[in-house]
Design a protein that fits this description.
- About 35% of the residues lie in helices and about 20% in strands.
- With about 525 residues, it is α+β, with helices and mostly antiparallel strands.
- The strands form four sheets. It has a five-stranded mixed beta sheet. Strands 3, 4, 7, 8 and 9 form a five-stranded antiparallel beta sheet that branches.
- Strand 7 and strand 8 form a beta hairpin.
- Helix 4 runs antiparallel to helix 5 and helix 5 packs antiparallel against helix 6.
- About 0% of the residues have low confidence.
């Protein structure tokens, strides 16, 4: 029993060493080239859309943490298994680690943000270190029985002290390598953080007007009209949030119909005419009644003005490109209709969010914000490239994964209070929530109790049609179990459909309901 146990420990130490050395080399090459990040990113890219949708529903913004811990658990099991294999076949166990290094290297150079074969070095170097350590430790295991010995290997002597010294030294060296790698990667992150801390957003030439009085209803449990940055939802594929140095950042605008290509620095954007706008964003992964909607006050540059400066014309005016493909620093591609960006709505290259530079989680230094479109076709974070092309010529990231090409936000209403299964007292109960139909606006919200008639709710004022709208309904609640249902009508006169659909391919639909028990 001692030999298999120590063989498994040897495999775990070898796997730890491989990851630690890879982390160190990635700190020298590029943090995103590390094997965990690269393989994790590749796994995300290859996960079927329904599985991703399930992960978001099940784990919310913790989906990436779940993936990371799951990967580390699998790596630990595989490493222990290779240790057991090495206990019987030293060369085969070491070769297994080398094989996983090759997998990591291929994943790294295959990532969209990879631009050099040097990205293969972290995985390969780590694998060599891990394989060498496993070969060394497996040679210091207690001698196998003659029946178990194979591969022509002689029995090995057992020296507990030599094994413990080698294992302890390997663990210490691996920890040191991992810490050094973290420090190297942390130095880059510190530079990015320093560049963000140094940003002073100029006063916008077109500031947003104060929110109308009463936009925020005084009803306990209702969502804040303006979502604090720390509470704003985050749904993306970045396993590790990119930390971009604003001083080194540049944006390129090029492609079909671009007569004057542009290359802009962060300071170039800050020096342009900035505007401030209230805009509500919604994720296409938001289920009916879900949390993935939020409102912020954004500061940025009108995207249509930049495109016009580059000589771009929308399709309605004879422009050859109907799709704007934005690319982030981590290789994400998002396709947006050129017509929507240039039709007069406040489509922005945003640099500020709720009065401060964009948080890293939300796209610092620059991101896109387009009212009326789900984020997966408009809200590119960490943007660095804009290419004008056509929908026929190019499928962006999510379109390749069976999501719709065009995705205007569907009209939705949500009950924030009372919560499902609440037990309010009999009498007047304030029912409240939010409704949204960005760029069309909300004209009416109705509430139904059980199978009774639809009753109009009271609507709070809003600054524009690009924001969500709070609503309230004083309900005379009688004892018993009741179902509350809400629906909204947008500015075009269209009432949201009762028909329930999944989020795939272009957003969920249906009425939101909650069941409460009145006491």
């Amino acid at each position: 029993m001692v030999r298999p146990l120590l063989a498994g420990v040897s495999g775990l130490l070898a796997g730890y060493a491989a990851l630690a050395v890879a982390e160190l080399v990635a700190g020298l090459v590029r943090p995103g080239a590390g094997p965990v990040t690269a393989v994790g990113g590749a796994a995300i890219d290859r996960t079927p859309a329904p599985v991703k949708d399930w992960a978001i529903r099940s784990f919310g913004e913790n989906d990436k943490a779940v993936l990371l811990w799951g990967m580390l658990a699998v790596i630990a099991l595989l490493a222990a298994g290779l240790g057991l294999l090495a206990g019987r076949h030293r060369r085969a166990g070491a070769a297994g680690i080398l094989l996983f290094g090759v997998v990591g290297a291929l994943a790294a150079i295959g990532r969209p943000d990879s631009d050099s074969y040097a990205d293969a070095l972290p995985s390969l170097t780590g694998a060599v270190a891990g394989a060498a350590l496993l070969y060394l430790l497996s040679g210091r295991l207690p001698a196998p029985s003659r029946e178990a010995a194979s591969d022509g290997e002689a029995e090995t002597g057992w020296d507990r002290r030599r094994f413990l010294v080698a294992a302890s030294a390997a663990a210490a060296a691996s920890t040191g390598a991992g810490v050094a790698g973290r420090l190297l990667g942390g130095a880059r992150a510190e530079n990015a953080a320093a560049s963000r801390a140094a940003v002073v957003l100029p006063a916008p030439r077109e500031p947003a007007a104060p929110l109308p009085r009463g936009a925020q209803l005084r009803i306990p449990g209702i969502s804040a009209f303006t979502t604090p940055n720390r509470d704003f939802y985050r749904v993306d594929t970045a396993l590790v949030v990119p930390k971009v140095d604003a001083g080194a950042w540049r944006l390129r605008i090029h492609g079909q119909g671009v007569r004057r290509p542009l290359s802009l620095s962060f300071q170039d954007l800050l020096g342009r005419e900035l505007i401030e706008r209230d805009i509500t964003l919604t994720c296409v992964s938001n289920e009916v009644g879900g949390p993935y909607a939020g409102h912020a006050r954004w500061i940025g540059v009108r995207l249509r003005e930049l495109l016009a400066e580059a000589g771009v014309r929308p399709p309605s005016r004879g422009g050859p490109a109907d799709q704007l493909v934005s690319r982030s620093v981590d290789g994400m591609t998002i396709g947006t209709p050129v017509e929507d960006v240039m039709d007069g709505r406040d489509a922005l290259l945003a640099v500020g969010m709720n009065g401060e530079p964009l948080p890293f989680d939300h796209g610092f230094p620059v991101r896109m914000v387009v009212p009326g479109l789900y984020g997966y076709v408009s809200a590119c974070k960490w943007i660095q490239d804009i290419e004008l092309t056509t929908f026929d010529a190019y499928d962006a990231y999510w379109v390749k994964r069976d999501w719709a090409v065009r995705a205007p936000i569907k009209t939705q209403a949500r009950i924030d209070t009372p919560k499902p299964f609440a037990r309010p007292g009999a009498g007047t109960v304030m029912v409240g929530g939010v409704a949204w139909a960005q760029h069309r606006g909300i004209e009416k919200v109705e509430v139904r109790v059980d199978d009774g008639p639809w009753e109009r709710a009271d609507l709070a004022p809003v600054p524009s049609t690009d924001t969500w709208r709070q609503w309230s309904y004083p309900w005379r609640a009688a004892p018993g179990s009741h179902t509350l249902t809400v629906r909204a009508t947008d500015g075009t006169g269209t009432t949201q459909t009762e028909k329930r659909t999944r989020t795939i391919p272009d957003g969920a639909s249906g009425w939101h309901s909650v069941v409460v028990s009145v006491e």
